[in-house]
Structure formats: structure tokens, C-alpha cells
Predict the 3D structure of the following.
Amino acid sequence: MYVAVKGGERAIDNAHAFLAEERRGAPDIAELTVPQIREQLRLAVNRVMAEGSLYDPDLAALAIKQARGDLIEAIFLIRAYRTTLPRHGASQPIDTGKMSITRRVSATFKDAPGGQILGPTFDYTHRLLDFTLAANGEAPAAPVAPASPDPVPHITKFLNRDGLIETAPPAEDTPADLTREPLSLPASRPLRLQALARGDEGFVLSLAYSTQRGYGRTHAFVGELRIGTVAVEMQVPELGFAVEIGEIEVTECETVNQFKGSKTEPPQFTRGYGLSFGQTERKSIAMALVDRALRWKELGEDNSGAPAQDEEFVLAHCDNIQATGFLEHIKLPHYVDFQSELELIRHLRAEAQAARQEAAE
């Protein structure tokens, strides 16, 4: 904490009180509750959970309330709280093939095996303000179809029957945990995916958009986008088998990208992959596009110099908490640093002035 002048602590305390007053807003308006935020601002809650790396809708809703709707500040709060939690173990990899699906679409097959499930989406809405939402009372919600209880096969499995898409090799070791170990470069694909999953949605979206415009040569089709709940299981040493400890909602995206072939391998499609907490489909699609762009070296492709293909650029700048900390620290007192720069400028100006006078004489 910077306390640069006398009375600084009192000023900071007053700023905190002012912040609390601003957060509450007009006292004659009913206070916004955490359950309201959790249930009615669910997409904001999902983003905070995803980029905060903590699946807890109640805590994410509380963070949004405390942050006055500033999602990056809310993500910061969640990350900070996460570091205080004890770690009891590691869960098993989730099986998205057994997902209880609420939304599942494919841009590659119209009659996708298992069917297309539109689910809750803005895709087919008219982007017009609905002023009835501002009136006293909303229209009753339409009945929601229950999630598909039966496992729905992944689209890429059908391409894989004929060897038309690359097969991901099984992981040999347990991937490193980005939340417990510092990122080192070059990074493995699991580490890159972790970083992208925690990365700022806007930054990842911009990089993905750049690849679609030609900066990365990764024009892709959405092989499948699915949203639903999956079981989380944990191995219990005393029992000798895994037990289910809960369920989480996730969004998974698999992209089908351009052909790849060599002298020994026939041409086939390649993959991009994205997975994120909650209904975060824009983030998951963007993540899959950037994931594919970063795979240029392992796939034997040329690097066009695009930002999305630069692993160090992407991974070093996608984290909005690190970016926020570095950016916002410059608004804090830097009086000593600036005074040294000021003295240097004055000294240089004096030397230049003296040189001009000497030349004039």
C-alpha cells in the first residue's frame, strides 16, 4: 500500500466508505441480492467462474456484487479467494461424452447423429431492445425441455471412423497445474489450454477473430458445440475407486480445421479445442481457434508471423488479472520515479541551452 502523504490512510478509509456507498446506489431502490445475480445474470457469473478458475456460482455472484459489476475486478476477487482454499486432491478427467446436454449444435453436419439441440441461445433472436422487460412484470417463461439424459456421441468420432480427422495421442503424464506452477515456455498443449481457459474473453476473442481474417491461416468449422452438466469424480485411496462428488456445467467446442498431410500421412482434418465453465460458448469457440493457431509447429506448418501463432505473445498477455495489475499500478504514486525523470529532463535541457549559447557566441 502506498501512503505517500500525511493523512493518506484516512483518505483511503474514506475512499472505501465512498465505494461502499456507490456500490449500494440509491437507498430507495431495493438492494440487489446474490441469488438474483446468480440466477438472472448467469452468463456474467459463468465468465467470472471460468476466468477465476473456481466453480462456485454463489461466490461468483457475490464477487460481481462487491465489484459493482466490474467482471475483471470480480475475477480478481475470486482468484484471490481461491488461493486461501485447501487442496484435498485432484479430480478425475471429466467425461464430456457422458454430458447431460442442454445445447448441442454442429456447423458441419445438418443431421448430426444424436440431433441438434438449440437450447438457450441469442443466435436466433432479433437484436432489438425488449422494453417489456422494463415494465412491471415479465411474460411467463416458455417451458424448457429437459436436458438429454442419454450420452450423445461426439461429432468428431464419426469423422474418425474413416480416419478423416487426426487422433489425439493419449497423454503420457499428468499435465502440470498452471495455478500451482509458473508458466514456462515453450509450453505443452495442456498448459496452453489452461492459460486460454483462464484468459480474458475479449483478448482471446480478438485473437480468434484475427485468425479468421487471415492472420494465422486457421479457417475452421465448428464440428460441435455442446453445453451441459458433467459429473466430477475423485479417486478415494481408502476405497480404491472414484466417487462422484458433484456436477458442473461446461461448454465444449471442437473445431474441424483445414487439411494436413505429408509423405507418410494422408490428408486429414485437424482439431482445435476449447472448454470452459458454464455457458461460455463465445469463449470456448475463440479458445478452440487460438488453440489451433498455436499448434502450427507440431503440425509442421509455416509460421506466418501472426499474433495468434506467437505462443509467448498469447500466453504472456491473455491473463486479464496480470494485465490489470501491471496496467493499473501506474495510477498509484510514483513521485520519486517521476522526480528523477524530471531532474534528468531539466539537466538535458540546460545542457542543450548552454550548447546553443556557446555556438551563438
